[in-house]
Design a protein that fits this description.
With 621 residues, the protein is α+β, with helices and mostly antiparallel strands. It is 54% helix and 9% strand. The chain contains 29 helices and ten strands. Helix 8 (133-154) runs antiparallel to helix 21 and helix 24 (432-462) packs across helix 25.
C-alpha cells in the first residue's frame, strides 16, 4: 500500500544527472508545494508500481493517490509553480502538444546519459538562477571607473570646446535652442545648463562628476550617486553638442540609466560590512536588460555593415584599410597593417562572425554564455590594442561582466571580500509593489529599445508609424539609443593641417596632441582619455569646412589667440601673439611599410592634396 501524503511526490531516477538537474529546478520553482525523492529510496513505499516503470520515467503521485508519468508528470509538476498553471491545460487541449512532448520525453529518457553530458557541458551541474551579488559589485566598480575616465577626460577640455571662449560656446547654443523650441527644449535637450551655462558651472559638472565617480567606485550611496552621475553627464552631452555625440557617450548614458535601478540603494555597499538578509538580491530583470543592451551594441554593429552595402565589408577588404584610416591608431595598428591580405580577409570574416553570431550566445545556457563572454571580451581587447576608442572598450567589457554569475567570478576575488558580499542566509524578498514597478519598468524599456531596434533594422518604410513615433519621442531623453560602429569603412586618410602666418608667405603648423602630424612620430596610446577636438578633426577631413561650421569657429578662435582653445593643441607656433593670417591644407596620409620605415625611420608618408580652408584674417588697423 502506498503511504498517504500531504503534498504530491515526484519520484525520479537518482542516478540520472539530467533528472537531478531539472528536478532541483522544479522544486525551486514550486516553492515547496511538492516533495521529490529518487526511486532508489522511494520505490519500496509504492510496491503497486513496477520497479522498471520508475526507471523508464518520472512519476508524480498526487495526494489522492493518482499517478501520472513521463511528459504529463512534468507538466503537472510545473502546474504547481506560480504562473505555470496553463502548461497542463496546454498539454491536454492543444492538438499535437501531447504526442510531441511524449516523443521528446522518450527520446531523452532512452539516451539520458548522453543528454546528461550535453547538459553538464552547456549549463553546468545544477539548475536554477545564479546569484549576481559579486558580478554586480564588479560591474559597479568598472562603471564608476568608466564615468571617472569620461568626466576626468572632459575637465581639461570642456572650456576649449564649449566654454564662453571655446569653439562652440554652450551659452550661445542654449540660447538658440530656447528661441527655436520654447518649452519643448527641456524634453528635447535635457540639461542642467538651462539654469547655468557659465564656464564655472561646466567645470563643476565635469569635476563634480569625476568626484562622484570615486564615490561610486568606493561603494558610497551607489543608487543616489548614479542618479547624479547620469544627470551630470546627460547635461554635458547636451551642452557639448557635436563634441559629445559619440556612440560611447550614448552607451554610457543608457548603461548608467539602467545601473540606477540595478544598484543597491543604501548608504554603504556590503563590502564595508557583512552582507545580511536585509538586502534584496540583484534584479535578474535588470541583468537581462543590461545583457540586451550588450546584444544590441554588438549585433547592430554587424548589421549596419551589411545594411550599408559598403563594398569593403562585402568583399572582406575592410581591414586592409581600417588600421591606418581609423581616427586614432595605436603603434600596434602599424604592425597590424603589415599583415598579409589573406589574414586581413580572414580577420574581416571573424568580425562578422563575432558581431552577427556570437551575440546570440548571450541568451544561451550558462556555459555557452560564458564562452560568448570570453569571445566578446577578447574582441574588445583586440580593438583596444590597435585603436584609441576612449572608454568604449572598457564600457563594453563592463557590460560583458554581467554575462557571468557569482560562481564564475568568486575565484577571482579575495575570499574575505566574497564572504562580505554574499549574504548569510536567504535574502529579503521585494514587496508586491516593487515587483510590479520593476515589471512595468522592464516592459517599458523592452518596448522602447525594441521600437528603436526595429526602426534601425527595418528602415522607415518597413516600420509601422506608431513605432517610428515612439522611437522619435524617446530618443531625446537619452535613456535608449541605437548603435552601429563603422557601418562604412573609410579607404583613405585625409589629414587637416592648420597653419598660421604673420606675412602670408611663411607658414607654421599648429600641432595636434594625438592626430598624425610629423611623419617620424609613432601613433600614440591615449585611451581611455579622448581628445575630442582630434576626433572631430578626423570627421571634418572626410568632408569640407562648409559642412562643419564649428571648424570656422575654431579658425576664428585661433586668430583671437583664445587660451582655452590653444590648450587643446600640443604646440602653438605663435606663443607671443596670434598670427595675422590662418589657413588649412589637407594631406593624404598612409602608413609606411617595413622597408620604408627601416630606410627613413618614418611611420607615415603623405601627399599634399590641396587647400581645406582659404587664407583668412582679421582686418587690423
Amino acid at each position: 500500500m502506498s503511504v498517504s501524503r500531504s503534498k504530491p511526490l515526484l519520484i525520479y531516477d537518482g542516478d540520472c544527472g539530467f533528472c537531478r538537474f531539472f528536478v532541483f529546478d522544479w522544486l525551486r520553482r514550486t516553492g515547496g508545494r511538492i516533495d521529490a525523492a529518487p526511486f532508489q529510496e522511494a520505490a519500496a513505499e509504492h510496491p503497486e508500481i513496477p520497479l522498471e516503470e520508475f526507471w523508464r520515467s518520472v512519476k508524480l503521485i498526487e495526494t489522492d493517490g493518482s499517478v501520472s508519468s513521463a511528459a504529463e508528470a512534468v507538466f503537472r509538476v510545473l502546474g504547481y509553480a506560480p504562473g505555470y498553471g496553463w502548461l497542463i491545460w496546454f498539454y491536454r487541449h492543444v492538438p499535437g502538444v501531447a504526442p510531441v512532448s511524449d516523443w521528446a520525453y522518450r527520446l531523452v529518457a532512452d539516451h539520458r546519459n548522453f543528454f546528461s553530458r550535453i547538459l553538464a557541458l552547456v549549463w553546468g551541474r545544477t539548475a536554477g538562477p545564479r546569484s549576481h551579488f559579486l558580478t554586480r559589485w564588479i560591474f559597479l566598480r568598472l562603471l564608476g571607473l568608466v564615468y571617472l575616465f569620461a568626466f576626468a577626460s572632459l575637465y581639461p577640455q570642456i572650456l576649449g570646446l564649449v566654454g564662453s571662449h571655446g569653439i562652440l560656446p554652450a551659452h550661445h547654443f542654449m540660447a538658440v535652442v530656447a528661441r527655436d523650441f520654447g518649452a519643448r527644449r527641456y524634453r528635447l535637450f535635457p540639461s542642467l545648463t538651462w539654469f547655468d551655462s557659465s564656464d564655472a558651472f561646466l567645470r563643476f559638472l565635469a569635476g563634480g562628476g569625476a568626484a562622484l565617480s570615486m564615490l561610486l567606485i568606493l561603494g558610497v550611496a551607489p543608487g543616489p550617486v548614479l542618479v547624479v552621475l547620469w544627470v551630470f553627464y546627460a547635461s554635458l552631452v547636451t551642452a557639448g553638442q557635436g563634441f559629445l555625440s559619440f556612440q560611447w557617450d550614448a552607451l554610457l548614458l543608457e548603461a548608467g540609466f539602467l545601473a540606477i535601478f540595478f544598484a543597491p540603494w543604501q548608504l554603504l555597499e556590503p563590502h564595508w560590512k557583512r552582507a545580511d538578509a536585509s538586502q534584496a538580491a540583484p534584479s535578474i530583470a535588470l541583468v537581462w536588460l543590461l545583457r540586451w543592451l550588450l546584444f544590441r551594441l554588438v549585433f547592430l554593429s554587424g548589421c549596419v555593415k551589411l545594411l550599408s552595402h559598403d563594398p569593403t565589408w562585402r568583399n572582406l577588404t575592410a581591414l586592409d584599410y581600417h588600421y591606418e584610416t581609423q581616427p586614432l591608431p595605436t603603434p600596434l595598428a602599424w604592425y597590424a597593417f603589415q599583415l598579409p591580405r589573406w589574414f586581413q580577409k580572414f580577420s574581416t570574416g571573424c568580425v562578422f562572425f563575432i558581431e552577427l553570431f556570437v551575440p546570440f550566445l548571450i541568451f544561451a545556457p550558462r556555459r555557452v554564455r560564458l564562452l560568448g563572454c570570453g569571445v566578446l571580451v577578447g574582441f574588445q581587447i583586440l580593438i583596444a590594442a590597435t585603436g584609441n576608442y576612449a572608454f568604449f572598450n572598457l564600457l563594453a567589457v563592463t557590460l560583458c561582466v554581467l554575462l557571468l554569475d557569482d560562481q564564475a567570478v568568486r575565484g577571482a576575488l579575495p575570499a574575505p571580500l566574497v564572504r562580505r558580499l554574499l549574504p548569510d542566509g536567504p535574502v529579503r524578498q521585494r514587496s508586491r509593489a516593487r515587483k510590479t514597478a520593476l515589471a512595468a519598468f522592464t516592459f517599458g524599456m523592452v518596448l522602447a529599445t525594441g521600437s528603436m531596434t526595429w526602426s534601425a533594422l527595418a528602415g522607415p518604410r518597413a516600420t509601422p508609424r506608431p513605432v517610428i513615433k515612439l522611437a522619435h519621442w524617446i530618443e531625446p531623453m537619452r535613456i535608449v539609443s541605437n548603435y552601429g560602429l563603422f557601418a562604412v569603412m573609410t579607404t583613405s586618410r585625409p589629414e587637416i593641417i592648420i597653419q598660421g602666418s604673420d606675412d602670408g608667405i611663411a607658414w607654421q603648423d599648429y600641432v595636434f596632441k594625438y592626430q598624425p602630424g610629423r611623419l617620424n612620430e609613432a601613433p600614440r596610446w591615449v585611451a581611455p582619455y579622448q581628445p575630442r577636438l582630434d576626433w572631430q578633426m578626423w570627421f571634418a577631413a572626410l568632408s569640407n569646412y562648409q559642412m562643419n561650421p564649428w571648424f570656422v569657429n575654431l579658425m576664428v578662435r585661433l586668430l583671437e589667440g583664445s587660451p582655452e582653445v590653444l590648450r587643446l593643441f600640443a604646440r602653438n607656433p605663435f606663443p607671443g601673439a596670434p598670427p595675422r593670417y590662418i589657413r588649412a591644407v589637407v594631406y593624404d596620409y598612409h602608413f609606411t611599410h617595413f622597408s620604408e620605415r627601416h630606410a627613413t625611420g618614418d611611420w607615415w608618408q603623405r601627399k599634399l592634396e590641396g587647400n581645406y580652408f582659404p587664407i583668412a584674417g582679421f582686418r587690423r588697423p
